[in-house]
Amino acid sequence: QVQLVESGGGLVQAGGSLRLSCAASGRTFRSYVMGWFRQAPGKEREFVAAISWSGGSTNYADSVKGRFTISRDNAKNTVYLQMNSLKPEDTAVYYCAARFALNWDVRGYEYDYWGQGTQVTVSS
Description:
Oligomer: single chain
Order of helices and strands: EEEEEEEEEEE
Protein backbone atom coordinates (compact mmCIF):
# COMPACT_ATOMS: atom_id res chain seq x y z
CA GLN A 1 0.00 0.00 0.00
CA VAL A 2 1.21 3.51 -0.83
CA GLN A 3 -0.15 6.70 0.63
CA LEU A 4 0.24 9.92 -1.35
CA VAL A 5 -0.28 13.41 0.02
CA GLU A 6 -0.14 16.46 -2.25
CA SER A 7 0.61 19.99 -1.13
CA GLY A 8 1.55 23.35 -2.58
CA GLY A 9 -1.63 24.30 -4.37
CA GLY A 10 -3.19 27.73 -4.08
CA LEU A 11 -4.30 30.88 -5.86
CA VAL A 12 -1.89 32.59 -8.22
CA GLN A 13 -2.13 35.22 -10.92
CA ALA A 14 -1.61 34.35 -14.55
CA GLY A 15 2.08 34.24 -15.35
CA GLY A 16 2.97 33.18 -11.83
CA SER A 17 4.48 29.98 -10.50
CA LEU A 18 3.64 27.23 -8.04
CA ARG A 19 5.48 24.14 -6.90
CA LEU A 20 3.44 21.10 -6.02
CA SER A 21 4.82 18.34 -3.84
CA CYS A 22 3.63 14.79 -3.35
CA ALA A 23 4.94 12.91 -0.34
CA ALA A 24 4.74 9.13 -0.48
CA SER A 25 4.78 6.59 2.29
CA GLY A 26 4.42 2.85 2.35
CA ARG A 27 6.17 0.57 -0.08
CA THR A 28 9.49 1.47 -1.63
CA PHE A 29 9.02 4.78 -3.40
CA ARG A 30 11.79 4.24 -5.90
CA SER A 31 9.91 1.23 -7.30
CA TYR A 32 7.15 3.45 -8.62
CA VAL A 33 6.65 5.52 -11.69
CA MET A 34 5.02 8.77 -10.60
CA GLY A 35 2.56 10.90 -12.48
CA TRP A 36 0.62 14.14 -12.14
CA PHE A 37 -2.92 14.47 -13.44
CA ARG A 38 -5.47 17.25 -13.19
CA GLN A 39 -9.21 17.66 -13.37
CA ALA A 40 -10.98 20.94 -14.06
CA PRO A 41 -14.65 21.46 -13.20
CA GLY A 42 -16.89 19.75 -15.72
CA LYS A 43 -13.97 18.12 -17.49
CA GLU A 44 -12.40 14.70 -17.48
CA ARG A 45 -9.19 14.00 -15.65
CA GLU A 46 -6.18 14.54 -17.89
CA PHE A 47 -2.53 13.59 -17.87
CA VAL A 48 -0.05 16.32 -17.01
CA ALA A 49 3.38 14.75 -16.50
CA ALA A 50 5.12 11.54 -15.51
CA ILE A 51 8.57 10.49 -14.39
CA SER A 52 10.34 7.15 -14.34
CA TRP A 53 11.53 5.53 -11.13
CA SER A 54 15.07 6.82 -11.64
CA GLY A 55 14.01 10.27 -12.79
CA GLY A 56 15.85 9.74 -16.04
CA SER A 57 12.77 9.74 -18.24
CA THR A 58 9.93 12.22 -18.21
CA ASN A 59 6.87 12.92 -20.32
CA TYR A 60 4.57 15.93 -20.52
CA ALA A 61 1.22 16.80 -21.97
CA ASP A 62 1.56 19.18 -24.90
CA SER A 63 -0.43 21.80 -23.02
CA VAL A 64 2.22 22.10 -20.29
CA LYS A 65 5.40 21.28 -22.16
CA GLY A 66 8.02 23.97 -21.65
CA ARG A 67 6.18 25.43 -18.64
CA PHE A 68 5.98 22.54 -16.14
CA THR A 69 8.80 20.36 -14.82
CA ILE A 70 8.37 17.08 -12.98
CA SER A 71 11.13 15.81 -10.72
CA ARG A 72 11.59 13.42 -7.84
CA ASP A 73 13.79 12.94 -4.82
CA ASN A 74 13.84 9.27 -3.94
CA ALA A 75 15.72 9.96 -0.71
CA LYS A 76 12.79 12.09 0.44
CA ASN A 77 10.06 9.92 -1.11
CA THR A 78 8.74 13.01 -2.85
CA VAL A 79 7.78 13.99 -6.38
CA TYR A 80 7.46 17.61 -7.46
CA LEU A 81 5.71 19.56 -10.17
CA GLN A 82 7.18 22.98 -10.84
CA MET A 83 4.62 25.06 -12.70
CA ASN A 84 5.72 28.28 -14.37
CA SER A 85 3.95 30.75 -16.65
CA LEU A 86 0.63 29.59 -15.30
CA LYS A 87 -2.52 30.26 -17.31
CA PRO A 88 -6.17 30.41 -16.23
CA GLU A 89 -6.75 27.17 -18.14
CA ASP A 90 -4.35 25.44 -15.74
CA THR A 91 -6.96 25.84 -13.00
CA ALA A 92 -7.84 22.38 -11.71
CA VAL A 93 -7.43 19.93 -8.89
CA TYR A 94 -4.02 18.33 -9.30
CA TYR A 95 -3.47 14.72 -8.31
CA CYS A 96 -0.30 12.71 -8.01
CA ALA A 97 -0.40 9.01 -8.76
CA ALA A 98 1.92 6.03 -8.41
CA ARG A 99 2.35 3.16 -10.82
CA PHE A 100 4.19 -0.01 -9.84
CA ALA A 101 5.91 -0.50 -13.19
CA LEU A 102 9.10 0.22 -15.07
CA ASN A 103 7.70 2.76 -17.50
CA TRP A 104 5.50 5.84 -17.23
CA ASP A 105 2.04 5.91 -18.77
CA VAL A 106 -0.36 8.69 -19.69
CA ARG A 107 -3.48 6.66 -18.89
CA GLY A 108 -4.82 7.27 -15.44
CA TYR A 109 -6.28 3.81 -15.06
CA GLU A 110 -2.75 2.39 -15.28
CA TYR A 111 -1.88 3.96 -11.94
CA ASP A 112 -2.33 2.04 -8.73
CA TYR A 113 -2.47 4.73 -6.05
CA TRP A 114 -3.76 8.29 -5.93
CA GLY A 115 -3.52 11.25 -3.62
CA GLN A 116 -6.45 13.34 -2.48
CA GLY A 117 -5.62 16.25 -4.76
CA THR A 118 -4.64 19.88 -4.29
CA GLN A 119 -6.47 22.84 -5.81
CA VAL A 120 -4.65 25.18 -8.17
CA THR A 121 -6.47 28.34 -9.20
CA VAL A 122 -4.99 30.76 -11.71
CA SER A 123 -6.66 34.16 -11.97
CA SER A 124 -6.55 36.27 -15.10
